[in-house]
Structures are given as structure tokens and as C-alpha cells.
Amino acid sequence: MRSVIAVYVENKYGVLARVSGLFMRRGFNIDSLTVGETDDPKFSRITITLKGDEYVRDQLVNQLKKLYNVKQVKVLEPGTSFERELMLIKVKNTPANRSEIMAAAEIYRAKVVDYTTEAMSVEVTGEPSKINAFIEVMKPLGIVEMCRTGVVALQRGGNIMEK
User: Fold this and answer.
1) Mean pLDDT, the chain, whole residue set
2) E strands within the chain?
3) For 79-104, what is the mean pLDDT?
4) pLDDT interval class at 163 (50, 70, 90)
5) Which domains does the chain have, with CATH numbers?
């Protein structure tokens, strides 16, 4: 089971290390971790995705709530939240695959951000499943390099995390 956990923390030195250290000490792998300042510079929001059963997830949530500098922890359920990710991917640019890269970029609503005779770089945003699908399309064309931001997620509607 995949879980997305939002953690609202004080924007202070060492907080991210304490949060990620909790996972390390418990022997759990983080699939993705994103962090950024909120509208209030005193706070940051960490979004963590991980795989594990409900018991593991609940145990980690309870441990996160006990950490100093953590203000709120929320499990974002798939039906009541949405998530996005950004990926930059560089693919070999050859006369044979150029039109296929351009067609895939159009179909996936991606944007070519760099173009040379050797490589083409594409920016893709969307749900992780869309990102994964785009990677599968690009693999046979020759992926040179890629990087992903990790998931960011919010609850739908007027639900917010309290400060």
C-alpha cells in the first residue's frame, strides 16, 4: 500500500534531519520526500510517500507527531487529495526518434525545455503514474539523464492543515 503523509513543521535547522532520521531508525524506506517553505516563512511543509501497510503508516504518523518542531501530521487519502510531480528528462535526439519525442511530449502535455542536435530535454508535470508512463515511452528512445522532484499533495476543497 502506498501512503502520502503531509507534515507541517517549524522552518528551523535540523528539523528535516530529525524527520528523515525517524524513518531510518525504524528501517522504513521513503519513496519520495519534498519540502518547501509555506506561505508563512516560519513553517515548512514536508510531503512523504512510502510503501507499507496501514499499521506501519499509523505507527510512523504517531512517531512523527511526537517529534519536537512538528506541528501537524496528516495522511492524505487518494479520494480526498490530489498530487503532482515534476520531472526533467533528457533523451537522445536523433533524426530517427525526434518526431516520436515531440509527439509523446504533445500527448503527455509536456514541454521541450532544451534542444540540441545531441539531446532533447522535456519537462513533464502531473500525477506520478503519468510521469512513470512517460518514462516507459522514452526508454526505447534512449534516456540520457532524468530527475524527479517527488510528490507534492494537497487535500481537496476547503480542508487545510492547521498551523
Assistant:
1) 94
2) 2-10, 32-37, 43-51, 70-75, 81-92, 111-115, 119-126, 143-148, 152-155
3) 96
4) low
5) 2-75 (3.30.70.260), 82-152 (3.30.70.1150)
